[in-house]
Each structure stands twice: as C-alpha cells, then as structure tokens.
Automatic annotation (TrEMBL):
GO MF term set: DNA binding
SUPFAM superfamilies: C-terminal effector domain of the bipartite response regulators (SSF46894)
GO biological process terms, semicolon-separated: regulation of DNA-templated transcription
Protein name, entry field: Transcriptional regulator
Organism: Acinetobacter shaoyimingii
Length: 393
C-alpha cells in the first residue's frame, strides 16, 4: 500500500490540474494523456453537474452470453477476492453496463449508492471519466485514482480495470473493474485486475468447446475453437444464414434465402450441405438445417451493440462491408437493414472521434462525413476538407 501522505499529495496535485483549463504538455504527461482526453470528452458530454449515481438500465439483460457463462464458472473466486481485499468487483459488457458484481462489506453500501451494481450504465458520456469506460476506450488496463473521476460521488474511490478478451475471436467482450477507497490505493491493483481478466478468459476457453466464430466484414472467415476452417465463399454464406436463423431452416427455405429466384437446383444445395457436414461433422444438423455449436460473429456483435445503444462498439466492429460479394437475397436484405441502422446511429452520434475512427476503415461512409460536417466548427481546417470531399464526389 502507498504511503497515505503521498496519496494526499497526489489528490491535491490532481485537483490543481482539474482547475487548470489549459494543461501544458508536461502537466498532461504527469496526469496521463488518457485521463486528460477522458476529461475533455466528459466536459463535452454535458453530464448534469448534480449527477450522483450512474443511470440504471431499464431492463436487466437476460441474454446468456459466453461471458455470462464464464463469469458463472469463476464467480466464487471473484467473490473471495472482493471480500479479502475490501473491494467491489464489477464486470461490464462492451458498453460499460455492469452485468455482475460482488462487494465486500466495506464497499457494498457505497457501491449501491452510486449504482455500481448490475444494470449500472458507466459509459463515459453518461458519468464521465471512470475506469470501466476508459479501459474499453483505450483497449488496455488502466487505473483511475480519486478525483481523476469526473463524478464527485466516486472521487473517494480508486478503480483498476482491464479488458476481457475472447481467446478465440481476439475481440474485447467485456471489462473487469476492482474498486476500493483511494486511501487503499495499491501499486499492484492493476496486476490484480489483469489477473482477474485472465481468469475469466481461461473460463471462456472452457465454456466454448464447440465455438464457431464467423467474420463477415472485410475478408470473410470462419474459426472453430480458434482455428481457421477452410471454406468456400458459398459455404460461409450458408453458415451466416444459419447463424442469423438459429431456429433452423428446411431445404426449401434455405434455398430461397441463398439463391432467391436464381436457377440453381435443390440438388446443388444438397451437395453443398453434404460438403459442409463432412467438414463440420455433427455441428451441422438437418431437418431442419441448424448449427449445433455456440455461434458468434462480428455481424451478430454489431447487431447486439446497436440493440444496446453502443454506437462506438458497433462502428469499431464494422471494418469493411458485410459480405460484399454475396448475391444471397436474404443476406443482401439483412445488410441493407444493418447499414440503415448504422446510418441512423451515426446521425445521432455526438463524438467526432468515433466517426473519424470509423472513416479510417470505411472511407466511403458518407453518412459519417455528413455528420462530422454537422459536428465540427466551420473554422476547423478539417471542415473545409470534408466539404471539398463531398463536392468532389
């Protein structure tokens, strides 16, 4: 544990920096650029100054995700950690909404007062700088100490957070946060958070013994238990349709979804399904055709993120066009629907940085350009470049 006097001095220094409207590069380096950037985003978010607790989600999620199953497997170990270290341990989803917590007696009432509980929404635009949101934003472990927090009600806390990475898809599926009072700040706190993330990631492997992951953006690809399965574009289309129709499809419905009115015989589709079954074995059943594996995909994650209102997560996952060469009427219609939902989310976005990141891997996203023109001041040099780009097109 760090000397109390040193922690008091650290709090005083942070407070002086908070009062400074223009930080020098040296001061920003002292504080940490990620914290400075988070403060700036928090100021722009127009968070009510009297906000004391995080908003609560209207409905608790009942979705049994791989993360949920993994947490269930190791929850006893996490509960012991919370009790022994006088902390509250919280696990958040990709949008910083808490899905599970365990509190020590010392921290329980404090956690409940500020809604650091299941259903608490700790997105940066709602409550400002906090470790849950910052770890997801930076994609790395982080510590938010005392009055580095934006919301005054948690400025007596110190929080350590680390992202939880799916061992197969390599994508961030959540975040774990360990929190206690500032005077119990420990230089090993980050290591503890990273260790807890590792425990959950190990549990994810154990819960995903029959795990199929479909990448449909950019270069389509299918992974089974983390290993690439060599498939044709048509076979990937079939798996994507079945992933979107978990209840299963009979031969006629699958043929219509895949080929539409094209003159392709039922026999051709039967042959495709036979080839797939040779590769996947009992992971593919018939009558109806259905996948008997835990199926995830980047396109499914985008849909889930949009359902939850996590625009930044959805845009980060869209690294290219969904199955750009498909001729399947079902998949083309689903893509049109997805792009319409993404465009709607883009025009509601208030963070220009999110849109710039989206343009970096989707330069033809004109809706993002149009929204940036609305968000950026007209005297900004980038504004004129965007106007010229639109005119040239």
């Amino acid at each position: 544990m760090i000397n109390t006097q040193a922690l008091i001095q650290q709090r005083d220094q942070i407070e002086r920096l908070r009062q400074n409207t223009s930080l020098s590069s040296r001061q920003a380096h002292q504080l940490g650029q990620s914290i400075v950037s988070s403060w700036q985003r928090s100021e722009m978010a127009s968070i009510p100054t009297d906000r004391y607790a995080a908003p609560l989600a209207k409905q608790k999620s009942t979705e049994q995700t791989a993360l949920h199953h993994a947490v269930t497997m190791c929850q006893d170990e996490l509960k012991r950690l919370a009790q022994q270290s006088s902390m509250v341990v919280a696990i958040g989803d990709v949008g910083s909404t808490i899905v599970w917590t365990a509190s020590s007696g010392q921290m329980q009432s404090a956690a409940e007062r500020v809604h650091f509980i299941q259903g608490g929404q700790w997105r940066e635009e709602l409550v400002g700088t906090n470790a849950l949101a910052l770890s997801l934003k930076t994609k790395q472990s982080c510590c938010v100490f005392s009055n580095e927090h934006f919301m005054s009600s948690v400025q007596d806390w110190v929080c350590y957070a680390a992202p939880i990475v799916d061992p197969y898809s390599k994508q961030i599926v959540g975040v774990i946060d360990l929190s206690t009072t500032w005077n119990h700040h420990n230089s090993l706190g980050l290591l503890a958070a990273e260790r807890c993330a590792s425990i959950i990631q190990t549990a994810l492997i154990e819960t995903q013994q029959h795990h199929l992951f479909i990448r449909a953006f950019s270069i389509p690809q299918v992974l089974f238990n983390g290993k690439i399965v060599v498939l044709t574009p048509r076979q990937i289309e079939i798996l994507t349709i079945l992933a979107l129709c978990p209840q299963g499809l009979n031969l006629e419905a699958l043929h219509q979804a895949l080929y539409g009115e094209r003159k392709i015989s039922m026999g051709t589709l039967k042959a495709e399904m036979s080839h797939l079954r040779e590769i996947l074995g009992n992971l593919l059943s018939s009558r109806p055709y259905r996948l008997n594996a835990q199926v995830e995909g980047d396109f499914l994650q985008v849909e889930q993120a949009l359902d939850a209102g996590y625009t930044e997560t959805a845009l980060n996952l869209c690294k290219g066009v969904f199955l750009t060469r498909t001729e399947s009427p079902f998949l083309m219609a689903w893509r049109d629907c997805l792009e319409s939902r993404l465009s709607d989310a883009i025009f509601k976005a208030k963070d220009a940085d999110i849109l710039f990141k989206h343009l970096a891997h989707s330069p033809e996203a004109f809706d993002a350009i149009e929204r940036l023109i609305e968000l950026i001041p007209t005297d900004n040099p980038i504004y004129q470049k965007l106007i010229r780009y639109i005119d040239e097109r």
